[in-house]
């Protein structure tokens, strides 16, 4: 007898799975899963972002959702593959209201991991491909309205005589990408941003800022970067792209606009959002409010004794204008993350005398090593040649449950540690405190757990290793004097400028500022997995807290993350919002409890 192919294995499993689901025979369904098993669902079954870990959790989810979801028409999408005893396959399916896509991993003929994602609402498809709009209005009409006239009318009406369904606070790449998805779904939306032009949030950062992630990882929805786009885009180029994108995607983007406060009326199911639009007071009444302020909240600015006596300048890294004014000055940079390294390097290039204060260990990974060993299989020119588009890569990465992600990541970072052993030794010889995360799982897990504590090296580490950037590690600031800082070991550093590269608080800090502390506490901490590692307290939650999914505050959502996350998860957030606008039932399964306030 011939051995079944990976595709035949996957087809047989999928047939059995579909049959058991159709008959609502959940015991038969569970017999198709390994004892160690994971089902990650993005909206399709749960109207949530939810990972079910183990048979009991999966069974409980199916008991609660199957009659409402009504899944059918499970199909393999292409040939399955097999490596190291694991069969992997793409699949498609339908629910009562949506079309879905998924990714399956089988071990010993049974399911190890399953990803299910909602891709499109059946009755509300995006106008793309064969459904694209005609554009021209053929024929003769005395009431003809041109495209420009329609856009001008919309700009005059929306927010004044006609209310948006959604208001997005924050017009960076996250808010812009989500607004583009909502626009394609015909959800009336206004984006609010305090800056004069789209992209200014990038333009206004320190002048050496570039993306540390490669271009294949960073596309926006609908319009990928062109093929000649640089691998690491400079901040002003990104700013210009965002401004162009906002125009081309026809977004209702209110620049020079600050939100002065917001409150929710549960009786009417409506927000009251008070804004100052370039000096004009406007009140908006959306049904849904989205905070798209990045993955970070309000800047963390530590207060040290004597700070008020300092005669030089003090600034958070988000306020740092760049090195030009500090040539010949003595600068102390508090922190050892991406921003700290970038700022220190630029200051050194401009002949400042700069010292980095490293208070705790930092994960360092060289950019080229990260691209080759960690990102390359999914996000690279080679991956594109192998047929892995960024959309496909997003789903493959999403198919790995967060519980398993350390095991998937550790081998790549073990290779990096071995490849760059000499580089790391030079840093340690200079006194730099290194780590690879609490469990040696590397960059991505540190980012997901705490959003801090790492640097992707694009050159600053050599300056630290050879002493061009001076380093004081394992110490903090004891007090600030008029022209110096005293460190916790009793030593003193002269200073004309202190830069606090000390990161940001949780995103719910913006909810506290804009809405109320009560609402911020109600939704709780944003970001982190509950891994019980440094700065990510337990209990285990299995998904990023509060991101792109329903929160404990009705009609309040958080959207952010890096460009990859903003691109991918804006799709699922937009579908959740569209379904609510259209009155489609959205029973949320497994809404997370709040364990931490900030």
Automatic annotation (TrEMBL):
Q: Which organism is it from?
A: Billgrantia aerodenitrificans
Read off the Pfam families from this record.
Pyr_redox_3
The residues that cross the membrane are: none
- The answer to whether keyword Isomerase applies is no
> Which InterPro entries does the protein's record reference?
Auxin_biosynth/cation_transpt, FAD/NAD-bd_sf, NTF2-like_dom_sf
Lineage in the entry?
Bacteria, Pseudomonadati, Pseudomonadota, Gammaproteobacteria, Oceanospirillales
Keywords in alphabetical order? Oxidoreductase
Q: Where is this region: Disordered?
A: 124-145
Q: What is this protein called?
A: NAD(P)/FAD-dependent oxidoreductase
Protein origin, superkingdom:
Bacteria
Q: Does this UniProt record's set of keywords contain Oxidoreductase? A: yes
């Amino acid at each position: 007898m011939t051995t079944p192919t990976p595709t035949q294995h996957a087809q047989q499993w999928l047939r059995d799975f579909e049959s058991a689901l159709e008959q609502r025979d959940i015991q038969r369904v569970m017999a198709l899963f390994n004892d160690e098993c994971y089902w990650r669902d993005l909206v399709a079954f749960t109207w949530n972002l939810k990972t079910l870990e183990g048979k009991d959790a999966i069974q409980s989810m199916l008991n609660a959702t199957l009659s409402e979801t009504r899944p059918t028409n499970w199909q393999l999408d292409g040939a399955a593959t097999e490596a190291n005893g694991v069969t992997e396959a793409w699949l498609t399916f339908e629910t009562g209201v949506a079309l879905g896509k998924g990714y399956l991993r089988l071990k010993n003929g049974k399911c190890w991991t399953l990803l299910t994602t909602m891709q499109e609402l059946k009755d509300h498809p995006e106008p793309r491909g064969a459904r694209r709009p005609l554009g021209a209005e053929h024929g003769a009409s005395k009431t003809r309205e041109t495209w420009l006239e329609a856009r001008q009318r919309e700009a005059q009406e929306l927010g004044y005589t006609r209310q948006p369904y959604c208001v997005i606070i924050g017009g960076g790449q996250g808010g812009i990408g989500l607004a583009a998805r909502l626009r394609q779904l015909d959800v009336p939306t206004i984006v609010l941003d305090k800056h004069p032009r789209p992209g200014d949030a990038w333009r206004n950062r320190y002048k050496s800022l570039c993306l540390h992630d490669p271009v294949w990882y960073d596309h926006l929805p609908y319009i990928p970067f062109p093929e000649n786009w640089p691998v690491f885009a400079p901040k002003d180029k990104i700013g210009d792209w965002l401004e162009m994108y906002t125009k081309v995607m026809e977004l209702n983007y209110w620049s020079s606009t600050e939100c002065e406060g917001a409150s929710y009326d549960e009786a009417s199911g409506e927000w009251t959002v008070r804004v100052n639009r370039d000096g004009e007071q406007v009140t908006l009444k959306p049904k849904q409010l989205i905070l798209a302020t990045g993955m970070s909240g309000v800047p963390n600015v530590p207060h040290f004794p004597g700070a008020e006596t300092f005669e030089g300048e003090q600034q958070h890294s988000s306020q740092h204008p760049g090195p030009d004014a500090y040539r010949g000055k003595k600068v102390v940079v508090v922190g050892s993350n991406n921003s700290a390294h970038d700022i220190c390097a630029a200051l050194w290039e401009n002949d400042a005398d700069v010292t980095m204060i490293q208070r705790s260990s930092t994960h360092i990974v060289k950019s080229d090593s990260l691209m080759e060993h960690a990102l390359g299989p999914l996000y690279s020119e080679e991956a594109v040649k192998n047929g892995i588009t960024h959309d496909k890569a997003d789903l493959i990465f999403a198919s790995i449950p967060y519980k398993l992600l350390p095991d998937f990541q550790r081998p790549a970072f073990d290779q990096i540690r071995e490849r760059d052993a000499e580089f790391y030794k030079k840093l340690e010889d200079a006194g730099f405190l290194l780590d690879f995360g609490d469990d040696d799982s590397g960059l991505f897990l540190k980012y997901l757990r705490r959003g801090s504590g790492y640097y992707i090296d694009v050159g600053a580490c050599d300056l630290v290793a050879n002493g061009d950037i001076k380093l004081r590690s394992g110490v903090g600031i004891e007090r600030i004097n008029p022209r110096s800082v005293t460190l916790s070991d009793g030593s003193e550093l002269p200073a004309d400028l202190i830069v606090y590269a000390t990161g940001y608080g949780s995103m719910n800090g913006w909810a506290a500022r804009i809405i109320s502390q009560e609402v911020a506490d109600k939704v709780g901490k944003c970001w982190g997995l509950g891994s019980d590692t440094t700065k990510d307290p337990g209990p285990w939650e299995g998904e990023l807290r509060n991101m792109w999914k329903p929160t404990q505050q009705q009609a309040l959502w958080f959207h952010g993350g890096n460009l990859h996350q903003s691109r991918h998860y804006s799709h699922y957030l937009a579908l959740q919002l569209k379904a609510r606008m259209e009155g489609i039932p959205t029973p949320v399964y497994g809404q997370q409890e709040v364990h931490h306030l900030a």
